[in-house]
Amino acid sequence: MKITRRRLFGLLAGASALVGVPSLWMSRMKTYDGPASDHFDGLTFFDPDGAPPKSLREVLRWQFGSKRQRAAWPDWAPSPHADTPPARLDGDKVRLSFVGHASWLIQTGGLNILVDPVWSTRVSPVSFAGPKRHNDPGIAFDKLPKIDIVLVSHGHYDHLDIATLSRLAKNFAPRVVTPLGNDVTMRSTDSTLKVEAFDWHDRVELGGGIAVTLVPTRHWSARGMFDRNKALWASFVLETPAGKIYVVCDSGYGDGKHFRRVAEKYGPLRLAILPIGAYEPRWFMRDQHMNPEDAVKALADCGAQAALGHHHGTFQLTDEAIDAPAKALVEALDAAKIQQERFVAMKPGQVVEI
After folding, report:
1. What per-residue confidence (pLDDT) applies to 344?
2. What is the pLDDT at residue 47?
3. Among 214, 148, 218, 147, residue whose Cα is nearest residue 181
4. Per residue in 15-32, is it b (16+ CB within 10 Å) or e — as a string?
5. CA atoms of 256 and 258, how far apart (whole Å)
6. pTM passes above 0.85
7. Which residue in 167, 180, 177, 261 sits closest to 213, CA to CA?
8. Cα 91 versus chain centre, distance
9. Which residues face 94 on adjacent strands?
10. pLDDT value at residue 107
11. Handedness of CA 148, 149, 155, 160 (dihedral sign)
12. For 196-199, which contacts have Cβ atoms below 8 Å and span 24 or more sequence positions?
């Protein structure tokens, strides 16, 4: 494969959205400064039960290796669904609308909560290169109800989208809840964001009897050249009138202990939202992203009554085909003898109520 300067720049822009490739266009960033803990050494965060991120050499081997098999995605793959959510949802139900990738609108107890909101065309440090949308958001931005709370899981560009957060701040001024250090990233770009940062196992009251707890997950974080693991990453356990919802935006599987610990400490869980995409090649991705077989094991480990699959089909971050995660999920459920309706791969605009 011929490596032109243009191709190298474009691929690094795309890879930085996913793996924090050192980026020449990123200057030194302000980072978190706080006391050491069992997962922060005073300079960087780490997962005692995780794995370190891949090196630049491994990134280049993946991107430019002669044996790479990258499936071609269609330029545009529209979802057959589109949602116009209600202004509020009161009572003891939860309404979950899938926006796309890892973005959700969760309505419950009179609150409107967005998870990892991304309405941008690209997930990249630059607007002209990097992974681009293959379908529209499942909710048009101008169809959003008033947003009260935003949960941001970590700093990778496909999860922390400053452009979208700034639009939300301008329109709704929501509270933004995120793991330690991501507040520094957000405020350094937009000082109007009402962001609050928390550590693993912190429980945050959101109002109306709704609360969220940040829990460890097998992942990592970076946005530029000097900030690898300078901000924390997390999954969320959301307490609602219909039960607890476990929201996993990015995670490897490992030996499953992260999921079992959530079951032991925070269960029982009514629903799990689990990633099923961005997993090939496995030698590179297995420590940070689950494939559908891993996700089915994670469902069994966390003990949730049901699961919704996300993190697939919108941005081509890795090498599998656009429809591979949904097909592999069906096969993994059959192999595990789990009913198909217990774990559904979502499409943008689809809605689930519990």
Report:
1. 98
2. 96
3. 214
4. bbbbbbbebeebeebebb
5. 6
6. yes
7. 177
8. 28
9. 108
10. 98
11. negative
12. 197/32, 199/37, 199/232
